[in-house]
């Protein structure tokens, strides 16, 4: 009888790990690892922010969106900028899980699980903001087609309806894909749990998984099928969001480069958030053997590539505005350079174009603290980009009599910071309740690495 395989160092997995030790390491993070004070501190801190976010929503429902700084001509403000920012962050998880799975990239294995969770939480935050912005959010279901005696149908030419279907489809497929991958791991937790409550809870969630050959065959087929369905969604969802703007006749909006520009920006911000989460996660839970410098290096390369596409989009915007000869487009571009929102614009250019250029050098891509700071800067830069698109493009319309400034109120900042706290709080809960790395896929990686060494 041959001995179980032991991993060799293949860059994306360190040497010396076997089936049992991999399972013990990841499962123990959920089942036996004691709760420590740094996690508790972060948990209660973000919980306070989440409670504030919920309270702010209650106040919004009572008083209406007038508590924000929005007005004519800037009628969207931070709420829609936050929506576009969050839905962009949600793209990296599906890209890592679906596209890299179809491309058989081994480096996805250690990061796909928490990246998928990040996608779900970010998409949830994104879906909230258009609803909160409706004015009467309790009627949000009116944008869905449903049988009613008045025979009233949604306005299919409204971007709200497009967002409803795009985001709804994205969340459903992302959840199914995430849950499908979780099934074998839930069964592992069920079998290792020491309390009856956990055995029953994980057993119910595992849907009777026994690890039979027939179950594995069907699981792999369904997993690949969902990956095939999710892959075009990476492109389609943010393209739909970009069309919310591109169909408008507002200077700075109606540009054909918006769909690819938005998709690249989404992956850019999404991978930045993956690094923001992965770097403290590997340090806090001792996962350096699974999330190695190779993972960070590959993610940084994707960050550099998508950042270059985003920079190309910025250049195209400037070129087309002047090349078109449209005086309103030119005025809008000059206003970005030196107008009221110029600090946001130059911060965007610094964080999204200049700073990522250090990633051309390998020693910077492998410098973990530097990479963490850079990922935070990119997240900040991408948020300012959304603010520039939503706010700066609309604050000066065709007529000077319609010009106006958007000045965010304290409630605008409360909603932004509250959504970030809620996102982090959900992630903290996730890493204590479910395997943060896929156990079954890591076992497979152990076998593949052992076979490579033979």
From TrEMBL:
Gene Ontology CC: one annotated term: plasma membrane
Name of the molecule in the record: Polysulfide reductase NrfD
UniProt entry keywords in alphabetical sequence: Cell membrane, Membrane, Transmembrane, Transmembrane helix
Record PANTHER family: POLYSULPHIDE REDUCTASE NRFD, PTHR43044
Top-rank taxon, per record: Bacteria
UniProt subcellular location: Cell membrane
Transmembrane residue ranges: 39-62, 74-103, 115-140, 160-182, 222-241, 261-281, 302-323, 343-361, 368-393, 413-434
Membrane topology: Multi-pass membrane protein
Pfam families per the UniProt record, alphabetical: NrfD
Organism: Ramlibacter agri
Similarity remark: Belongs to the NrfD family.
């Amino acid at each position: 009888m041959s001995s179980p395989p032991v991993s060799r160092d293949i860059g994306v997995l360190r040497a010396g790990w076997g089936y049992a030790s991999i399972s013990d390491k990841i499962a123990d993070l959920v089942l036996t690892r004691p709760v420590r004070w740094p996690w508790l501190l972060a948990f209660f801190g973000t919980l306070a922010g989440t409670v504030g976010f919920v309270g702010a929503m209650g106040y919004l429902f009572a008083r209406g969106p007038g508590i924000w700084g929005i007005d004519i001509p800037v009628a969207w403000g931070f709420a829609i900028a936050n929506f576009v920012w969050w839905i962009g962050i949600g793209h990296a998880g599906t890209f890592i899980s679906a596209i890299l799975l179809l491309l058989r990239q081994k480096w996805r294995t250690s990061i796909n699980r928490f990246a998928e969770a990040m996608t779900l939480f970010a998409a949830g935050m994104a879906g909230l903001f258009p609803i909160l912005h409706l004015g009467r959010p309790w009627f949000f279901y009116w944008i869905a087609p449903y049988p009613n005696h008045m025979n009233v149908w949604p306005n299919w030419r409204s971007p709200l309806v497009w967002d409803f279907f795009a985001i709804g489809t994205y969340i459903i497929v992302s959840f199914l894909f995430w849950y499908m991958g979780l099934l074998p791991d839930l069964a592992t937790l069920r079998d290792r749990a020491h309390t009856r409550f956990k055995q029953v809870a994980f057993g119910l969630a595992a849907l009777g998984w026994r690890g039979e050959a027939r179950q594995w065959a069907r699981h792999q087929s369904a997993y690949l099928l969902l990956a095939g369905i999710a892959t075009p969604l990476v492109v389609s969802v943010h393209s739909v969001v970009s069309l919310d703007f591109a169909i408008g006749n507002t200077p700075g909006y109606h540009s054909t480069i918006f769909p690819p520009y938005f998709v690249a920006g989404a992956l850019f911000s999404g991978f930045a958030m993956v690094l923001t989460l992965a770097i403290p996660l590997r340090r806090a839970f001792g996962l350096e053997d699974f999330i190695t410098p190779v993972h960070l290096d590959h993610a940084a390369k994707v960050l550099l590539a998508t950042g270059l596409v985003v920079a190309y989009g910025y250049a195209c915007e400037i070129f087309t505005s002047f090349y078109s000869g449209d005086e309103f487009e030119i005025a809008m571009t000059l206003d970005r350079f030196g107008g009221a929102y110029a600090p946001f614009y130059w911060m965007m250019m610094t964080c999204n174009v200049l700073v990522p250029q250090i990633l051309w050098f390998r020693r910077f891509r492998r410098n973990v603290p530097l990479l963490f700071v850079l990922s935070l800067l990119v997240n900040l830069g991408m948020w300012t980009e959304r603010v520039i698109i939503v706010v700066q493009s609309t604050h000066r319309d065709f007529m000077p009599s319609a010009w106006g400034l958007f000045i965010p109120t304290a409630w605008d900042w409360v909603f932004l910071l509250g959504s970030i706290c809620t996102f982090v709080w959900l992630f903290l809960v996730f890493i204590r309740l479910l395997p943060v790395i896929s156990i079954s896929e890591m076992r497979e990686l152990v076998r593949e690495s052992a076979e490579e060494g033979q």
